[in-house]
Amino acid sequence: MKRLGLIIALLLIALIVVGPLNALRESFEQGKLPKADRLHWSMNNVSRVWAHNWADLEDAVLAALYPTEGQAPELVVMVPADSWQTALAALNLLAHPAKAALVLINTDSAGYAEQMLQKARELAPRGSRDLGGVQVIAVGKIADQASALADAGFSVQGVGFPDSYVATSAALAELGAELHEQPRVAIVVDGEADAAFALPAATWAVHRGTPVLFAQGGTLDPATAEALDKLAAGSSIYLLTPPGSPARSLAGQLAAYGVVREIGAAGVVENSVSFARYYDSASKFGWQVGPETVDGSHRFLLARADNWQFAVVGAQLFSQGIFGPLLLTTERNSLPVPLEKLLFANRPDWWVTPAEGPFQHTWILGNAAHISYSVQGRVSFLHEMSNYENMGNQGVSGLEAVTMVWIAMNFAAAIWVWCHLTTHLYQLAPFMKLAWVLLALVLGPVALWAYYTSYRGYGHQVAKGVFPRPLWVQVLAATSSTMGYGLPVMIGTAFILTFRGLPLFLNSGPLFVFGTPMMQSVIWSYLAAVVFNALLFVPLMLALKEDSSWWDTVRANWLTVLVSMTSISIGMMTSMWWFMMEYLDMMPEESNLLWWGSMFAASIVGMMTGYIGNWALVIRGEKKGSM
Amino acid sequence: MDFARRLRHPRLWLFGSALVLLIGLLTLLFVQPDYYQAEATEKRQTEELAPAAIRLPGSNQVEVAVAVAQNIYPGTFKDAKPGAVILVPQGDWRTALLAMQIVHFPINAPLLYTERDSIPELTKAELKRLDPEGLFLDGNIKVILIGDIGEGVKQELRSEKLKFRELNADTPEELAALLDDYKAMFHVNHDDQVIIVPKNRPEYALLATSWVAHMGHTILLVGQDGVPEATRQALAKRPQDAFMYLIGDDEAIPPTVTSELAWYGHVQRIPGQTPAEAAIGFAAYQDFGRNFGYWFRNVPRTFGWAIGEAGHNFIFVNPAYPEMAIPAAALSHMGKHGPFLIVGQDQVPEAVTRYLKTVQPGFVSSQEPLFNHGWVIGDQDVISSEVLHTVDELLQVRR
């Protein structure tokens, strides 16, 4: 009997210690993941423009933007596919109100005039009203082929210079000013550094028509200076380069043309995140992705940092009716930490109903060899709505934090009680000791207080563990001893039932309530607590004091146990019901920390009602409060 | 120095245990869960994309249901998997319609189609991919079979070790009541808010599904000739009055039926004399006020999408194919919640255009934008490219 009691008590300890950690299992163990057979690659919060190379991507993006002849672009901007600087600088031409498409022309092959002609015919631009009917703009070194297009009947304009992207970008800024109004802001990037540090400017340029100009390391070309000089009065210049890079030294020189602000971070990914977060309230420049905006409604473009053609071609997806920051990743099969943090921190939450938004969506550029299926799944998850109070899956809400602290206090209290029992109160019956440890594991500081109140002032001299106490402390000790096993048995039973799947007896009669999983969990927990206490733990706790047989002890005490457990359950079960079904709306799963939080909170209420029931028992002499 | 005695000192145990616990918890800070273990097969076809409207392709209902499930549950890690999967027989739109009322939490299950006696290959593969977690509130069942499903399907599920529950009834009205009872088991209460739909008019009835997938309310059926007995009994189960919302014109649900329903509580008809208008009527609809209260607590009711402004999502369906439209309602269960809007294969009804223009976002700022988004359900034979791009333009931010 003792051995059985000991085994069950130790199992209960193990369950209450390990049970809450079960919540962690959820995030570490992903279950079986068979290779997904997809009909399509869309997800709730992520779309993918599937492409093997930039030419594929260009076709897909242009098909999405200009699907039919009726929806043809007004203007086609052609740039050479070997100069990221030229392509990036040309994006400002695409901004609203221009309805313009960007195509890259592969200049490796000799006959690229033919390529240009073919693209112009496919897209059939209608002609830009702001540029006097120009249909095609050929930028940089391909401008020399403009005549071939003109011969074919297109209205063509060549812009820029074949061998200087700096001068070309200045010319594009000037042309942009014709299409839009004279800009008040400009972005300056380093043309000699890694393209990936400049690319975040792409979706902003394509959205707002902001000119992108170039520094060359630590030098500022006169062409750039001249372009900056043309900015409208009171202008701002945004220097997008990582801190400490040579171009940062130009800040003083640039100040001659406007207010200079520096943006950027050392890593490519961090750099794109810092641009996404950036906002200058003076000029309204920057995406300001962060908790300070009220509407967390965002569209993101996610591309590989090592493929500038993808980023530039894909950016035009954000030129019209949707827009947002370009995020860059360096990994195929994981989301870099800065991106995970940015998206997690901006996870949308709802107040009234999940139909209220804000809704977020990311567009991934490329195929699974560029950015994996798993990354896409992760991003979709990070955009998923959750209600503000719960902070969603994998988030830690206030209530969950309180639960965690409570669990930590439980552990600490149990260790302390155990140490104290084994050294200072060794004369207590062994199962009484276990009862206190178990109680501390559930009620933490409350159990510690009950323990202290019950035994303070008594030294080693108290023989056989009988403690003379005032009545209220007797009741406290009597309640604690019942709860010591009662609460863990209830929690343990509910845990095992929930873990294995609660029973549900479908019934349409008026007594359907008794077949519901919640009620089933309540009924079985209560019965288990009564049975285990009456048949096992109470006889064991009393064993050292009374020299009667087990069966006599059971018979003498079962009614007391029933009354005591019932009075505890009245508070515990009703408050558990309220926490789970009313406060949380629906019973949480046992792997959810809030399941434990609800149980612990309900246990405290159970102690209060249990105290009332035990008071009656102790004054009638049915139960001893001196152990 | 008596080490043996010192070792027994409780302080040492205390510090020791606390240290072990602390180190254990600290190591957790360095453990990164691996969310990147899943792989998928190469893309099969180029799908149709537009900035604000995405097509979920499928040439038949089995494919559409799978396409929708794949959109909602990427399954790349545990939290991206469903709780269970609902299987309904294809060729029976009423069963699918009624099944949508248990898609919502706590069940959290997409709907897939099956044959009566065997599970189609595509559905079977999807069931495997979804790998449902199991419904802890009902014995960890992984599949819910709704409607008339034969032994062959059950045998297949048993051999795959997928625990299931069957819910079937003789008539659709009784099935609706049974599903209402099943939901009541989780909430320990019958839902006071009920959508009443005409049992012979799928084009109206399907409009209820995106709302119940979003909110979990109950769908009950009525006929043109009166309120069926099963529906009456179900309505009477609410502890107090029911709040009934009718979808359908005066012919689909005649005023005589409305008066009969009024015996059971509050009745309102969602406006719209055609399916397309009723969809918009529902999208813009809201009813709120009292539900019940006592002493120190009052619970209000709110019902309806109430979308009259920018920043929302819509699911575009062709009501000529109700079995394709209905599973797509699950898109309102997670992610981009939103009502059904109705389009034809090659035309957008005038009323839909007008509504989309009303809720079209205007450009406010680059930092605080509001975006609309649309899902277009089915292949081009169901909804054409022109329709997709027409609604796309109306969903994009107006500049």
If you had to describe this structure to a student in words, what would you say it looks like?
The complex is a heterodimer of chains A (about 625) and B (about 400). Chain A has 22 helices and 14 strands. Chain A has helices spanning about 1-20, 20-30, 55-65, 85-90, 110-125, 145-150, 165-180, 195-200, 200-210, 220-230, 250-255, 270-275, 310-315, 335-345, 375-380, 400-425, 430-445, 445-455, 470-500, 515-540, 550-585, 595-620; strands at about 45-50, 75-80, 100-105, 135-140, 155-160, 185-190, 210-215, 235-240, 260-265, 300-305, 325-330, 350, 360-365, 385. The longest helix of chain A is centred in the last third of the chain and has 34 residues, at about 550-585. The two termini of chain A are about 20 Å apart. With about 400 residues, chain B is an alpha/beta fold. In chain B, helix 13 links the parallel strand 12 and strand 13. The longest helix of chain B is centred in the N-terminal third of the chain and has 21 residues, at about 10-30. Chain B is globular, with a radius of gyration of 25 Å. The model of chain B has no long low-confidence stretch (mean pLDDT about 95). The interface between A and B is large, with 109 and 105 residues.
